[in-house]
Write a structure and sequence with these properties.
This protein is 42% helix and 12% strand. The chain is of the alpha+beta class. Strands 2-1-5-4-3 form a five-stranded antiparallel beta sheet. The model is unreliable at 96-101 and 262-266 (pLDDT under 50).
Length: 266
């Protein structure tokens, strides 16, 4: 059985001195670092359960327990991200620990430097940064319209809940179907965890189309290609979409819409 998670925890347990974990360091030890019983006590879990986890048995580690392990083991941002990846769980503090970097100011600087509509989505597909060109294109989503609940602009909420999306996006039914398939691929095994689970439930309650599309289990990569719009003020527009993952923030995606020649707009 592949036991990368258990081996990772054991190796890092052996690197932590009792003193650094707030325990007395007296007495001789047969092995370096913390004993299993000590790590279990510090994390508030059963020593037997921790033993099973390190041995690779079929036990499930919750996100909260993994967070406690990461704190006690003094894991770096990269190590913490790797721990949650091995356990196939979402880090409840992923934005603060995702390799460092990617602050709001840095993200704003990135999108403002792009001479085309550009925006950055997080794992929930909330827009965390966008430029003026994107705000002008996506009326009703990124143009400063207030969310009735004060939430961050979300691409899926706009697509399935805002009337402007259906008139703005050419061939809305096809694009909506693709968007749901891309979102499923992007969320992978985390769709049942918060906050994604609540977002999916909200969309299913509020949109019959989403409610029909989500159970289909369609999966597509968020690839580039031509994107066409019928803008209320500028008329027909066409762009080439390019989506990139940020190197220091794997939970963020930068999307750019590069204008196509006027002849490409039909």
């Amino acid at each position: 059985m592949n036991n990368e998670l258990g081996e990772f925890i054991r190796r890092h347990r052996e690197r932590i001195s009792p003193q650094s974990a707030g325990l007395p360091g007296g007495g001789r030890r047969r092995t370096p670092g913390l004993r299993r019983e000590e790590l279990a006590q510090l994390c508030g879990i059963s020593p037997t359960w921790l033993t099973w986890l390190e041995q690779g048995r079929q036990v499930s580690a919750s996100a909260g327990m993994l967070a406690r392990l990461a704190d006690v083991l003094h894991l770096s941002g990269a190590e913490r991200t790797y721990l949650f990846s091995l356990a196939e769980r979402l880090d409840p503090q992923r934005e603060a620990h995702e390799h460092g970097g990617g602050t709001p100011g840095e993200l704003d600087a990135i999108v403002q430097a792009i001479q085309a509509p550009a925006y950055v989505l997080d794992q929930q597909w909330d827009a965390v940064a966008w430029n003026a060109d994107a705000a002008a294109l996506f009326a009703g989503w990124l143009d400063g319209g207030a969310d009735p609940h004060g939430r961050t602009p979300n691409l899926l909420r706009f697509m399935f809940s805002h009337p402007a999306a259906r008139s703005l996006i050419v061939d809305w039914p096809h694009r909506a179907q693709r968007l749901v398939a891309e979102f499923r691929a992007d969320t992978s095994k985390h769709a049942s965890q918060e906050p994604l689970a609540s977002l999916i439930a909200e969309l299913a309650r509020g949109s019959g189309e989403f409610r029909q599309l989500w159970p289909l289990q369609d999966v597509l990569g968020r690839e580039g290609g031509e994107r066409r719009f019928q803008h209320p003020a500028r008329g027909a527009l066409a762009f080439q979409q390019v989506t990139l993952q940020l190197a220091k923030r794997h939970d963020l995606k930068l999307t750019m819409l590069l204008p196509l020649a006027a002849a490409a707009v039909h």
